[in-house]
Fold this sequence. Notes:
Distance between the termini: 34 Å
Number of strands: 7
Radius of gyration: 24 Å
Structural class: mainly beta
Shape: elongated
Order of helices and strands: EEEEEEEH
Amino acid sequence: MKKKKNESKPIKIEGVLDVFDDKNIMFNPSNNLITVKGFRRRGVVTMLSNGQMGFMATPQKKSSSKKMKRTIHGTLSENDDNYYLYIRIDKTETDDFKKLIKKEVKELLE
């Protein structure tokens, strides 16, 4: 069962917002009494001409692929359109990687 995320109320933080080159922004709060948990998220920041600003996080896409089989070095998965074969071999593991790839592909396709 998945836990539901707690709905939180907006927090008002006053401070100075510096905008550099219409790309980079830095916010410096003037009141350090309010603390919020830091986060890093991809999204869209909107700034209106009156200085109001909003942030909308882009939803994270769930993988639509289903893993069919796994081995030590590889994974075979499928989605609606394609099959995917992923193999990862550490360079320090072997000098004869071609032989190891053949072995992994054979195991995944059995």
